Amino acid sequence: MKRPRRLAKTKERRATVLAGIILLQAICALFFVGDVLADITAVAQIADVHLGLEALAAVSLIAGILFLMNELRRLLIRMGDMDTGLRAAQGQMADVMQDFFDGWNLTEAERDVAIMILKGLDNETIAQVRHTAPGTVRAQATRVYAKSGSDGRAQFISLFMEELMSDDFAHNDAINPNRHAG
């Protein structure tokens, strides 16, 4: 789960940087608008090139501010949508895992080991977390692989990756765990 968090932090930083740029442009736009107004009230000629450039800079900065504010709004909406989708996928993944585990008739201990395998823990770490012997974890992992019809850790994990990447993931009403065996 480190990668989605890293991506979320990158998007948050991007939004913060964009907000900072908008603020900086707003300050610059205020300066140029104030300078143009001061020049006009000082009875400067409107045809003055310097005044025209300042007015153009002010208008450009205001247009940039409006554009960036729109981009920031869209970025925040996208971030919200992605966060909602990620939470939904996590919930669906839990349902998918339970459906598979039920179909394979895993015991509670085997379910715990299977979840930790999916999280990427090795047998030694699983043994430490579960306060059991490494040999017990190896035996439970072997039973999980046998019941799932997989040849080992990599193939076991790929069962879930296939399900995540399948078009049926959003419609996981009738998961048939045996379709992956073989």
UniProtKB/TrEMBL annotation:
Molecular-function annotations in GO: DNA binding
Pfam families xref list: GerE (PF00196)
Keywords associated with the record: Membrane, Transmembrane, Transmembrane helix
GO biological process, any: regulation of DNA-templated transcription
SMART domains on file: HTH_LUXR
Keyword ATP-binding assigned: no
Keyword Membrane: yes
Transmembrane spans: 48-69
Highest taxon in the source lineage: Bacteria
Domain HTH luxR-type positions: 103-160
InterPro entries registered for this protein in UniProt: Sig_transdc_resp-reg_C-effctor (IPR016032), Tscrpt_reg_LuxR_C (IPR000792), WH-like_DNA-bd_sf (IPR036388)
Protein name in UniProt: LuxR family transcriptional regulator
